[in-house]
Amino acid sequence: MELQEDAPFIIKPGSMKKYIKISAALGLTICGVLYAIINPIFGSVEESPVLVIAPELLRQHVERLANTEKPRTYDNMKALNAAAAYIKSEFKKHSEYVRAQKYKVDYREYKNIICSFGPTDGERIIIGAHYDVCQNQPGADDNASGVAGILEIARLLKSQAPKLKYRIDLVAYTLEEPPYFRSEYMGSAVHAQYLKDKGIVVKAMICLEMIGYFSDEPKSQQYPIGLLKLFYPSRGNFITIVGKLGKGGLTRKMKRGMRAGSSIDVRSISAPKIIPGIDYSDHLNYWKHGYDAVMITNTSWYRNANYHMPTDTPETLDYVRMAEVVKGVYWAVVNLK
Fold first, then answer.
1. Residue-wise pLDDT tens for the chain (337 aa)?
2. Rounded CA gap, 204 and 241, in Å?
3. Which secondary structure element, helix H or strand E, spans residue 158, and what is its range?
4. Is-cis flag, bond preceding 143, omega within 30?
């Protein structure tokens, strides 16, 4: 039998054009998906003037909240009310518009504490953090850190006296944690429902959820999906803005503003709620009503092994980096367009 040489592989001109089109479409699709998820920002950002937040003040807030006689859980009303009273007293140092939004659950009275700045009417920006804890733990990072953040934002709003286009409501929520998580009794659910019922226009909602724990150790940052390791750091020394997939506008605005207002490494992700952690805080109740909302977080249990543990104590937090996060949030919010 006569052997023949293999015929050369030839791509016809028409096939080549089709191949190029498919490759280009695939490349654009991948770029589009990454753009929607990672929310990159391009070009330089205008830096803020010098803003000062004393890390020691953040520490004092966290210690005061974390060191109640009993944990500030839903059934330890004395501790929960002591935390609420402290928050209210601190707010009153910076604004005359401070009030409690009270409601009852199982014959107990709970309260959100609200502090306002800016125009009384018009669109609002909500910055919120929950002050209750899950079970028997001090909850320094979860979430005394977030509450300390809104207390210091109140201080900046008073001292800097920016000309505000929108009304800013700082809200300390109760009952974010189990057994009321994802229920209508969450403090943020009550607040969001109130806004909806009154027809109040909300420009944006920013949720501060665990902003105090950082690590420079290799592989200190974990992710719910291994693929994310290709696009995000392996060291837990950054802060993340978490947004809803398809709603990247607010995420990018906050990212640009936070980078301009602080020295902290700011990353962002917009992802579906199916990924664990994407909607695990108070912002989920604003999403339910169609409000634009993001969460500012150190990624919770993906970094901090003290999550929902008795070891979540004030001395484990990095108050210098935490101060940078708060400065960044403040600058992003007062310049939000």
1. 444 555 555 556 666 555 555 544 444 444 445 556 877 776 655 666 678 899 999 999 999 999 999 999 999 999 999 999 999 999 999 999 999 999 999 999 999 999 999 999 889 999 999 999 999 999 999 999 999 999 999 999 999 999 999 999 999 999 999 999 999 999 999 999 999 999 999 999 999 999 999 999 999 999 999 999 999 999 999 999 999 998 889 999 999 999 999 999 999 999 999 999 999 999 999 999 999 999 999 999 999 999 999 999 999 999 999 999 999 999 999 999 9
2. 13
3. helix 145-160
4. yes
In angstroms, rounded to a whole number, what is the distance separating the alpha carbons of residues 61 and 151? 8
What is the Cα–Cα distance from 220 to 49, expressed in whole angstroms? 33
- DSSP secondary structure string for all residues of 219-255: T----SSGGGGGTS-SSS-EEEEEEETT-HHHHHHHH
Q: Tell me the whole-structure pTM to 2 decimals.
A: 0.90
Distance spanning both ends of the chain, measured CA to CA: 79
Q: Which helix (DSSP H) or strand (DSSP E) does residue 92 occupy?
A: helix 77-92
Q: 49-334 is classed in which CATH architecture?
A: 3-Layer(aba) Sandwich (3.40)
Helix (H) or strand (E) holding 30: helix 13-38
Phi, psi of 202 (to 5 degrees): -110, 120
- What are the tokens at 255? 């990212």
Identity of residue 285: N
What is the distance between the alpha carbons of residues 188 and 183, in angstroms, rounded to a whole number? 10
Position 150: which residue type? I
